Amino acid sequence: MRAGVVDQLADEEMRQLLEQHRDRIVGLLTETPGLSLDENTCAGFLHGFMTVAAYFVPDDSVYQQSMFPVLGGTYLAAIDAPPEATPNLAGARRFLADLAAAMDADPDAVILSTAQRAILEERIRGGFATTPDVPIDHATLAGFIVGLMYATNFLPSDDATGPIMLIATVRQIADDLPT
Q: What is the pLDDT of residues 6-24, one digit of tens each?
């Protein structure tokens, strides 16, 4: 990924686009209560973004093509993280608890069947399995959710049902984690 980003930075227009996404991502991670700018939260963001890209955006579409600069922006955000930065696990737990409360209060909340949850959980865990150095913990799952939400801007329609189902699944995975 680094080599691809370095190549893209040579093009002024592309560099500005990557930096724009970096700035948005850094803003989301530093301004959202409970989140922090660290490598694991950025990795969670990337996994969430990529999950939407892989399962809900048509291959070779203009939507998919427009997502590539976000990958470079995520890389730039991760390298902007202070080297000593550690995930804010307590804050991420609060973020996830607040999200759960909001979901519980929603009269139109998504209720997943056992089969749906199993499929979506496998997609989430399968994505994280590609990067074994990135744990599935509260911080990476909070980053995952922010990445999902960021990716909804790139869906070919206003239908965010798939990402919402993923958020419901992440919530359940988070509920099963030790505190």
A: 555 556 788 898 899 999 9
Distance of CA 156 to the CA centre of its chain: 18
- Asked if 73 contacts 19 with a C-beta cutoff of 8 angstroms, the reply is yes
Domain ranges for the chain, please list them.
2-176
Instruction: For residue 9, count CB atoms less than 10 angstroms from its CB and return exposed for 0-12, middle for 13-18, buried for 19 or more.
Output: middle
Longest dimension (CA), the chain: 49
> What's the DSSP call for residue 105?
H
* Rounded CA separation 146/32 (Å): 9
Tell me the C-alpha distance between 26 and 21, whole Å.
8
pLDDT tens profile 47-104: 999 999 999 999 999 988 889 889 889 989 998 899 889 999 999 999 999 999 998 8
Measured between alpha carbons, how far is 44 from 124 in angstroms, rounded to an integer? 10
Assigned token pair, 166: 């993923």
